[in-house]
Structures are given as structure tokens and as C-alpha cells.
Amino acid sequence: MSEIENKLTTNFGYLFEEDLISEIIKLGVPKSFNEDSTIIEVGDYIKSMPLLVSGAIKILREDENGEELVLYYLEKGDTCAMTLSCCMGQTKSKIRAVAETNVELVMLPKEKMAEWLGKYNSWQAYILQTYHQRMDELLEALDTIAFLKMDERLFKYLKDKAMVTHNDLLNVTHKQISEDLHTSRVVISRLLKKLENESKIQLFRNSIKVLEL
To answer: 124 FRET partner, CA 20 to 30 A, in 15, 101, 169, 189?
Structure first.
């Protein structure tokens, strides 16, 4: 058994029937992406659905001016409900997916998505749970924008980033943060200093240590 098959079995074996795992191994195409690589671009036609085998992916929305906003993160064992919707509806992607860390995926042919919904109870349950989880995360993102002050949004962003990467030392610039949160670098720099003064983070050159998780 290959390394990717081992990871598939480890991450999805407890979710899916043995026959479904066998089909995924047979039909899935392994792909890997380096950190910061674009996996799915806005406007792409989605021809296959990704299962995340290792690493973390950042899902972003882009406005008409090209400004981005982070919606949520995917971790190993996840897939993207928006990608599934595009697969099933044969529509263009409305999101951008970027590798937050080095990522391993198994790409599944879109032709199998509907077939497996009727064939495997575990696949149906997985897809429904995925939609439910992504909807919760989208509502959380909306609440964060609507109800949290910018310093609270910033600290939540840093904690989320630390949790999905399993590392409390984040290699990220003020400019990258400002782009993800759709605000100015000057504002982010000021608020990072405020969080440091509150002993919530520690600032280094091009990295940030999260002290409260």
C-alpha cells in the first residue's frame, strides 16, 4: 500500500465503507501543492472534487476589485462544499483555494459524486455533514465581520491560523494579514502592537507567536 493510500485509509477509513475507500483509491488522482500555491482559482470550472489528505487550505472570496477575504480553512479529512456544488452544477468556482501549508489531495472525478450519493450511505452522510460544517463556518465568518471589533477579528484570525497549521509561530507578514482581513497594513500593524502589549502575541520579524490559544 502506497503512502497516499495509507493516509486515505487513516483519515477516511473510519468514515467510509471499505468498498468506497477502494473506489477512491482506484479512481482518485493524488496531487500535492506547496505552501501558498493556488489550488483553485476564481472562475475555474471544477472537474474533480478534492479530498484533503494532509495539510491545510485557505478558502477566500474575491470582490469585484480583486480584494480578498478569508472565509474558512480546510484541514485533513475535509472537502470543500463549494467545490462540490460547482462539480454537481457544472458552474464556475466562486472561491479561491490557497495552500496554507504543504498540501496533499486526492482528486475525485465529478462523475462519481451523484452516483456515490445513492450508492454509499457514508458518502451521503459525509457530504451532508460537510455542507452543515461549511455553513456554520460561513455564518461564523459573517458574525466575525458584523459583530467583532477589528482587534478581535485579528486575534481570532491568528488563533485560527495557528490551530489549522498546528503551530503557534506563524510565518506571516503584516501585508498578508491585511489582505486576508480586507483592511490596511497600517491598521494591522497598530493592532498587532496592541495585542502584543496585552500579552496575547509576540512579534518577530516576519513571524508572530500566538501566546493565547
So the answer is: 101
